[in-house]
Prior knowledge:
Layout: H1 2-13, H2 17-160, H3 165-208, H4 211-219, H5 227-233, H6 241-244, H7 251-261, H8 285-294, H9 299-303, H10 307-316, H11 323-327, H12 329-340, H13 368-376, H14 382-386, H15 390-399, H16 412-421, H17 424-435
Amino acid sequence: MDRLQExxxxxxxxxxxxEGQFLLICLAVAYLLGLWTGWLIWGRRAxxxxxxxxxxxxxxNARNAEYQVLQNKEAQLQQVVESQKSELVxxxxxxxxxxxxxxxxxxxxxxxxxxxxxxxxxxxxxxEDMETYLKKIDALDNQxxxxxxxxxxxxxxxxxxADTLNDFASIQSSYNATRDRLVVIESKISDLSSENxxxxxxxxxxxxxxxEENTSTATGLFQDLPKEEETxxxxxxxxxxxxxxxxxxxxxEAQDKVRAAIGKTIPSATEADKDDLKQIKGIxxxxxxxxxDLGIYTYEQICKWDEEMIETVTAAIxxxxxxxxxDDWVGQACSRTKSKGDTKPKxxxxxxxGPKGDRLQIIEGxxxxxxxVLKEGGIHTFEQLAKSTTEQLKDILKASGKPFRLATPxxxxxxxxxxxxxxxxxxxxxxxxxxxxxVD
Length: 440
């Protein structure tokens, strides 16, 4: 340190006055240059920072503007949230009401299902009762036919021997009592058939209707229908009581008339061509023998019967009036003829040869009254029925002035088409499905 001080002292001691001034001027110039250089450097940095500050101020203003916009949006969103909360409360209330209705609907559905099951069981019981009554009727038919045969034999014996009048009176009394019992049973069968048909239709409506409508339908299911309508909607399987007690033709004249028709309106046949007529429902061994005696041996011959011939054969074999129609011997015979390949024209197998047209009662749902109304409305054949529309058929039924509330004319058209084409097996399958209350 002392040396350094000594060196500076020696340095400045050797400087003259002019050199000192020059040195001071140089130092002053150097100071000013350094000050100017520093000011330039600081000014550039200051300008740069000023520009940066202005840029940052612009960004800050833009951010403030964005912030203000976001605040406005936040206020709007807050209002929307409040509105959505109000709507959510309303929706919650509606949800609670809907859940309450669904719970009530489930209870109603369970109740309706129970009612449907009960109706199905009742329907099954009615079918069983009907089968039982039909068996009883068949047995009584056989008894009545046997009694009629005995009655005829006794009438012949009465002419020869007056002493047998007492026996005849006894048998006649038994015959009348049996016939009265048969009329009562036939009436019960008609009532059961009507009730069964009504239950099937109402059950089908319950299955197709919505839950709310099913409730009202089920409450009215067991109301009684008017008697006139019952007769209208009952299928051809059970004829009315009036048809059962028609005035019969004289058996001898009827037999001669049937034999005269063979070879004309009825094809000829011999015993060699004989078919098993017992395959037709309603024909037993006793009736088959009577038909053979008249010259009726084949399905084809029965297939050619018209309305008038059916009545004539009924009288010729002393059979129950209307029973041949009810059991549909003609339709069964035509179906079996077709399956054998014995007939060529399909659509003409059950057409009548007279002016009465086709037997429209073959169609499921068309009874005697329905057939009469349709023919009065201009529908006489299967072809006319097949070409009709449902609305046209409904107009004809409505114009008749008779109640047809349970009639289903929309099912008659496809049946008529099958009958027109001679598709008897398909027609039978369709009618079976209709009788079960459903159509595929």
